[in-house]
Amino acid sequence: MNTELRAEVTLPDPLVIAHRGASAIAPENTAAAIREAIRLGAKVIEFDVRVTSDGELVLFHDKELDRVVGRPGTIEASAWEAVQTFDVGTWFTGGKFAGEKVLRFDDAIRLCLEGGATPLIEHKTGSAKSYAAVIEKLGVGDRVIVQSFDWDFLTEFKEVMPGVLIGALGSKELTSNHLSDLKTLSPDWVGWNFNDLKDSDIPRLRVLGATVVLWTVNNPDIAISRVSAGVDGIITDVPDVITGALKR
What we know:
The chain is an alpha/beta fold. It has helices at about 30-40, 65-70, 80-85, 105-115, 130-140, 150-160, 175-185, 200-205, 220-230, 240-245, and strands at about 5, 10, 15-20, 45-50, 55-60, 120-125, 145-150, 165-170, 190-195, 210-215, 235. Helix content is about 35%, strand content about 20%.
């Protein structure tokens, strides 16, 4: 594994990524989840980003608001003035985090970096130019990774900000078409569903020169087995548990 991918992004080996922050002990994609991940020692923190109806980039995973916010609708159909009033903490573990607010994209980046962690930014919606504008304004293009299931988005983002690390996400069987597209895209990072990526697929991704990670693994035995088979990292809801297992 190339632990120094580019510039200031230096990754431990094996790599453990906190999925939506420490999402097993705090509500996902919130400041609380990011702070908990930092407290647990996570060096890379993944979070999901969507765009509001008036162009604000914010942290939110689901297409619909109901599970987390408890009301119908979407982030994309909501203005930032409304989104910033949403309570995204009450749903989690009996309301212990009641009052937690939706976090803006730029604030999430700052929070990760201030805690010594690399932001792993997962694009859900929004244009490549809008993501690039925030990253450029913060001056952190050499300290973040941008990933997406939308490889067309990654192609455009790479054209807008060629110096930023990009990660291609995928699932289901790794086909020759996938490999051809990945060769064209030339991502620094490939993240695949752990249920779908076979051990025999790892060498096929290795030739691309990309760091290979699996999502989302919460079972320590599975994490140990897959790292032993050659993957570089694990995306997990329980970064402290997986880190401890891999150290053993």
